[in-house]
Amino acid sequence: MGYIRITEENIGKEHICCAMSNNQSLQKKEWLKARFKEGLVFYRSEERGKCFIEYMPAETAWQPLEADGYMHINCLWVSGSLKGHGYSSDLLDECVRDAKEQGKKGLCILSSAKKKGFLADPKYLKYKGFQVADESDTGIQLWYLPFENNTDAPRLKECAKHPLVTDPGFVIYYSDQCPFTYYWVPRLEKAAEENGIPLKVIHIDSREAAQNAPSPVTNFSIFRDGKFISHEIQSEKKLLKLAGL
Hints:
Blueprint: E1 3-6, H1 22-36, E2 41-45, E3 51-57, E4 65-66, E5 70-78, H2 87-101, E6 106-112, H3 122-127, E7 131-135, E8 140-146, E9 155-156, H4 158-161, E10 170-174, H5 180-194, E11 199-203, H6 207-211, E12 220-224, E13 227-230, H7 236-242
């Protein structure tokens, strides 16, 4: 199967795999357009479906990391009937090739000890030679693949390693990096208002804000009374359940 690199020139006519809805795609595409000049690469299969890799230099990544010299993988996603054909390896190999050509120390990506939604599969990462570099109190881990021995490992910033906010009630941090937040966050706000649930929503709209966020995952993170609950996007029903309703 062939692959296509999404660029500022072709993004208007190409789909981006992870969001098929027009509105969701447009929001995500606007975020991507602003990142291309910062070194972001979006590489996908020619076949329409969820098969792509998105990566960028860790210095410009929207994650709270200390990983100078590394390439950060925002997302590596192959699903459905496209699984089991070696496409993940094709995409990862292209990232490795590109990173080495740019003189990077290695790759890094968020995962966990056991597979969690919206994070890379740790079994696959281990198979590919990745190892754990750091871990937050929430169990979210930073994995890395160094290109040479004795390379300094990347780290999570302290704000991400020990997630905590001071606001009472529910607090959601989110960015446009994930297209599904465009759909779900307004619905969560509406559900909270209709049911008297205290909810504060913080839109991460800059790299500086993302790199100092109180969670390793800046796409979406939800807290309650200061404590981290989950990085997985919640539905209205899940929010009501969390609130005991």
